[in-house]
Amino acid sequence: MTTSKPHDQMNLATLIHNFSLFLSVQKQRSKHTVSNYVRDVEQFFSILSIDSPLLINKQHIHSYLNVHYKNNMNHRSIHRKMSALDQFWRYLIQENIVTNNPWESIRRPKISQHLPNYLEEHAMLELLNNYPHSSPIEVRNKAILELLFSSGIRVNELIQLRLHDIDLVGHECRVMGKGDKERIVLFGSRVQMSIQYYLDNARMQWGSIDKTLFISATGHALTARTIQRIVKNANRYHSSSVEITPHSCRHTCASILISNGAGIRDIQELLGHSSITTTERYSHLPTKKLTQHYLDIMNQ
Length: 300
Hints:
mainly alpha, 4% strand
């Protein structure tokens, strides 16, 4: 059983609230992550009908986990809940509320790493080369697709890009990733030309004062749903049986980079993966002989 040191704030709701502030301010976790962690901690105590972490022992933990296993919860979800609770107990130790973490000795379920859908390099190029660009909207959409495939950025990162975040000469842009972590992503000359063409022949026509890079014809920033629709409609321009989503563009970028010889650590940094294990799921892909720097891969 966990034991405590004197502390003047033992109310469970207060502890969870302070934990959420700790995650947001000190750990700089995203709002989505904080919300999930708080919900998981609250659910844990609700299932056990216990209102203090001081009363928790390993038997309680096994009873809690058995509830999820009996409900056929997938291992990935259970793993995430255990991570949230482990973080909560680490926080309690830091605040001198408890002196040990019972989750450290609890074995977590194994998570099978399945490589998500992605396009082979030839199919990606087929899509981009076939995509129409006769109207301003099509010009914008093509630039979006080129950037998604080349840089591997997330949808939320893309729709938040502002004009000053893009350095077309340097072939890079600054993005704000999960947990408000800023990073630099790279892209090839195809993207440079596509975005420049969009700026000159579409965005300028719409005359918006909005500083967001990708906007609608009415001058407003795009939504994630709009990007999802653009990518879904783009499936008609490749002959592969793979049905891609915006996240598939990200996986396509990673798979092409690693198959052309880019290192796992480089890809982790470019994609903004917080854990190297997330990137390592691509490591089984066949690797070609590296003949040029991976920044030039997308310049074909």
